[in-house]
Task: structure prediction
Amino acid sequence: MTDIRDDVAATFSELYGYAPAGLWSAPGRVNLIGEHTDYNEGFVLPFAINRRTVLALGLRDDSRIRVGSAFADEIAEIDLAELSPERLSGWSAYPLGVAWALGEHGADLAAVPGVDIYIESAVPVGAGLSSSAAIESAVAVALNDVWQLGFDRPTLARVGQLAENKAVGAPTGIMDQSASLLGQQDAAVFLDCRSLEAQVVPLGFDEAGLQLLIIDTGVSHSHATGGYAARRASCERGAAVLGVAALRDLTVDDLPRAQQLLDDETFRRVRHVVTEDQRVLDTVRALRDEGPTAIGELLDASHRSMRDDFEISVPELDLAVETAQANGAVGARMTGGGFGGAAIALVPASGVSRIQVAIDGAFAEHGFAQPTMFVVTASTGATRE
Ligand code: GAF
Result:
């Protein structure tokens, strides 16, 4: 099998007519638990996966930036001085948005050399595994290195988030970029999204004889469209009415008062976020004290909360989760922003095939398109290759 890295280096040379100065890569991520808590300044527990985006980069002797990719027919090109969200569109808004966002964070774009970039990705697009954050994080780390900017990883995560928010136009939080930049082998990233303090939490799946199965429903989703922004707006409304800076500042003990003050829909959105923050803390404690077999009910409860209170699941995700649970999964939930994408199931290694067959059968029975299923492991964050 050819290594994607050889491909990227060879295609870079073909495309631009010279050899790259180096290769960088960044992983996609899966979120174990803690959904729609990041922009509420709460807690998340994602991990970087063993599917990576790889880029080759070469330095130019002018101030142009060019980006090419396996998923685009044309090379996008612009002068560094002209970078602004209004000038960016399509897929190249992700990499070029990062260059712009580095400038917003203080990099002097008039003092750095132009670059050529070529990108390929093994992170499935549209599966809710953050193929976008993988691009942003790979570009952020590469430019930080070659432009010698000296930004730390939490700052690079903010850079990626700014690119996504302003250049791409998706009002997302800080989780995905943080996971892609801070990921560690066989461990999750326990992130406090207010302080950006991150702790490494060993997962211990292997030792417990468990595997994490991704069930990509193929139902497409986009966070630059309505549903995600509407949920974020509900959370902000809830926090304003309840007089807190962010929903992070509430605990489950505040929920009775919240129910009195909020309309039913806003209350349920708030209840999801507040209980989900607690589930993240409980999951971290369970992983540390008892190991991964103890987190099943927390995963299941997270799914119910997203289905019933936050209302971001779809029938395909519910079916994947229910079928996994009925066929021996330790726990299962939809993962990511919702409205499509993937579910995860924590599964005994010996039962993975059985669960896959059961899910295939259930999808066929319901007339749903066949999902794509694969096991992921926790991998290291963005790096120079
Ligand atoms: C998407 C967003 F990009 C994240 O910031 C996060 O809000 C997630 O949805 C939901 O937990 O992946």
User: Anything to note?
Assistant: Residues 31, 35-36, 38-39, 172-173, 175-176, 223, 336-337 surround 2-deoxy-2-fluoro-alpha-D-galactopyranose (CB under 6 Å).
